[in-house]
Structures are given as structure tokens and as C-alpha cells.
């Protein structure tokens, strides 16, 4: 005796009678019940099938087996059978049947998408279109979220994941794995956007430049979402916007203090950084001496190698001249 013909479900236990009449005379009667409601009543004179089970069952009158197909979740429950043998012996048995609906279309959704580091909390819900007797498993990347903490909590029977006071390291991706004994499905990963910054703002570029050369300054910051950038030169706002400031051909008006300001519209925070650009100018170059001046630093290096040599020669000549004159005068 058993239950067969499963299309979507699983029999957790097969009903077994201790005595099955597979070769003897037909049974006098067979009665199958579902939750104490009649499924089929058999006697040698004929069978009486409940309307809900017509075209869904098949009864083996020799063994007592009942085949049931086109299962639905409503077929889950307790099944019992009572048999009267040709010798009027009473046989009975019972079993439980669990029918599961397959899991499908799992999705995860946050209750908010505007999250600020240390100032926001988020509740992520796991939804399914179909499925019964469900189990939920949350994953952060490749790690299972199995134990709730002060900040991370799994609730509502496993259908929700709550993260309190989010940090930038809570971005995920998060997935929800839903399963039952006959199927499983995983929703698309959810990556959270957690706003922070700008911070660690810096300007990268040369500090010494020459006339006419192309110079590029690059402003960078750690920020989510990416910040907007503005530039000023010596305290005066420029029309340049964006992380890159390009000087196509350096001239005397391009030296000074460049200030880059980054603004995060989500966190409503800003940060500024300065970078000084000095003009390296070659004023002169001669055979007898060289002179180089670096503006702003006011460093002058003058080399008088040849001039000092000439002075020494003139001094030697004058000394010789006056010495000879004194000797003539004394004579």
C-alpha cells in the first residue's frame, strides 16, 4: 500500500500494512480516508470515489495500494486505510503526506536606498513568488549570516535582515537563499550604496613648471557617491569643474596656490586641499657666469669662477707694478 504519482511533492513516509494480500482472494472492503474524509470506498460490488479525487487516484484492490497524482499543497495531511479481508480480519494503517510548492522568483529589497555611514539603518526583505515550508539563509558575499549581533539581526522568521548604523564595509553584496525539501532558489545580489566622505582629499601634480609647458593637476578623494569638484587659484574661483585641472601653456599668471574643493551631495560634506605651483624661470646664461632664480623660494645661485680668476690676475699684476716702482724710487 502506498501513495504514488507525485508531480510536485515529496512523500515523507510510505504507509505500510503489516499484511498485504497480493495472492489471496480479493478484500471484502477497502476504505481510504484523508483527514478522516472519504477518498474511496471499495467492495467487490464496486467503488465509490469522492468527487475531489475522481481522475486523480488509482486503487489496487489486490494489494490495497492507492496511487494519487496531480498533487497540490492541499493534499498534505494524514491518510488512513481500513481493510476487511475475505476472512473478516481487520487491517489498518496510516501515514502522513507533505506536498511542497517549488520555490521561485526570490528577490531582495531594502527599505531605503539613501544610507549615510554611522547615521542610517537598513532593513532588507526577502520575497518569493511561490513556495511553501520555506527556510531562509542570508549571505554577505561568500559568508553566511547565521548569528545576530548588536548591529546585524535576522528576523521575521528569516525573511528580513536588519543592519543598524551602517558602515562603508556593510555594502554587501547580500543574497537570500530560500529552500524547502524539494527546491531552492537564490535572489539577485543586492549591493548597498552607503554614503561617506569626502575624505583624504589630495592634489597630484608638479610643483615647479616652466613657461609654455602643459601642466595637469589631478584632485582625488575617497567618497561615495563620487563628489563634485571645483577649483580656485589664489583665492579666486575658476570655471574649471571636475577632478582635472589642465594648464595648456603656462604663463606668469598661472603660478600660485591652487585649491580643490570636493562636495558630496549625499552626505552634504565638503573638503578642500591646496597645492602650490611655482614658475621655474631661466633668466640668463653666459660663458662667464650662470644665474638661476626660482620664484617664490627666492633662491639665487651665482657662479663667479671666471670672474674670481680675473680679479686674482689683476691683483698680482698691480702688486708687481707697485713693487717695481718702489725699488726704482729707492735707487
TrEMBL record:
Gene3D superfamilies from the UniProt entry: Immunoglobulins
Record InterPro entries: Ig-like_dom (IPR007110), Ig-like_dom_sf (IPR036179), Ig-like_fold (IPR013783), Ig_sub (IPR003599), Ig_sub2 (IPR003598), IgSF_CEA-related (IPR052598)
Keywords from the UniProt entry: Disulfide bond, Glycoprotein, Immunoglobulin domain, Signal
Protein's name in the database: Ig-like domain-containing protein
The Ig-like domain, residue ranges: 104-193, 198-278
PANTHER family reported in the protein's UniProt record: CARCINOEMBRYONIC ANTIGEN-RELATED CELL ADHESION MOLECULE 20-LIKE-RELATED (PTHR44337:SF16), CARCINOEMBRYONIC ANTIGEN-RELATED CELL ADHESION MOLECULE 8 (PTHR44337)
Matches recorded under PROSITE patterns: IG_LIKE
Amino acid at each position: 500500500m502506498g501513495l504514488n504519482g507525485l508531480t510536485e511533492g515529496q512523500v515523507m513516509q510510505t504507509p505500510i500494512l503489516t499484511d498485504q494480500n497480493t495472492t489471496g482472494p480479493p478484500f471484502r472492503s477497502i476504505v481510504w480516508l484523508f483527514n478522516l474524509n472519504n477518498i474511496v470506498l471499495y467492495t467487490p460490488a464496486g467503488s465509490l470515489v469522492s468527487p475531489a479525487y475522481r481522475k486523480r487516484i488509482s486503487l489496487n484492490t489486490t494489494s490495497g495500494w492507492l496511487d494519487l497524482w496531480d498533487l497540490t499543497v492541499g493534499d498534505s495531511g494524514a491518510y488512513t486505510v481500513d481493510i476487511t479481508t475475505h476472512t473478516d480480519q481487520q487491517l489498518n494503517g496510516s501515514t502522513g503526506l507533505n506536498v511542497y510548492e517549488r520555490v521561485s522568483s526570490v528577490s531582495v529589497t531594502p527599505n531605503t536606498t539613501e544610507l549615510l555611514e554611522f547615521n542610517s539603518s537598513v532593513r532588507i526583505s526577502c520575497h518569493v513568488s511561490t513556495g511553501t515550508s520555506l527556510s531562509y539563509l542570508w549571505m554577505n558575499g561568500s559568508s553566511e549570516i547565521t548569528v545576530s549581533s548588536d548591529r546585524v539581526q535576522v528576523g521575521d522568521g528569516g525573511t528580513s535582515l536588519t543592519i543598524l548604523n551602517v558602515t562603508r564595509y556593510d555594502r554587501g553584496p547580500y543574497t537570500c537563499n530560500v529552500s524547502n525539501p524539494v527546491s531552492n532558489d537564490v535572489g539577485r545580489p543586492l549591493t548597498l550604496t552607503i554614503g561617506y566622505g569626502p575624505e583624504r582629499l589630495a592634489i597630484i601634480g608638479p610643483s615647479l613648471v616652466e613657461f609654455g609647458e602643459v601642466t595637469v593637476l589631478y584632485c582625488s578623494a575617497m567618497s561615495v557617491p563620487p563628489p563634485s569638484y571645483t577649483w580656485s587659484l589664489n583665492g579666486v574661483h575658476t570655471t574649471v569643474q571636475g577632478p582635472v585641472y589642465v594648464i595648456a601653456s603656462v604663463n606668469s599668471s598661472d603660478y600660485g596656490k591652487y585649491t580643490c574643493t570636493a562636495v558630496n551631495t549625499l552626505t552634504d560634506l565638503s573638503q578642500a586641499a591646496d597645492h602650490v605651483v611655482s614658475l621655474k624661470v631661466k633668466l640668463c646664461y653666459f660663458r662667464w657666469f650662470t644665474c638661476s632664480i626660482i620664484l617664490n623660494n627666492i633662491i639665487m645661485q651665482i657662479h663667479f669662477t671666471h670672474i674670481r680668476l680675473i680679479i686674482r690676475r689683476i691683483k698680482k699684476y698691480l702688486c708687481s707694478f707697485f713693487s717695481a716702482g718702489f725699488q726704482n724710487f729707492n735707487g
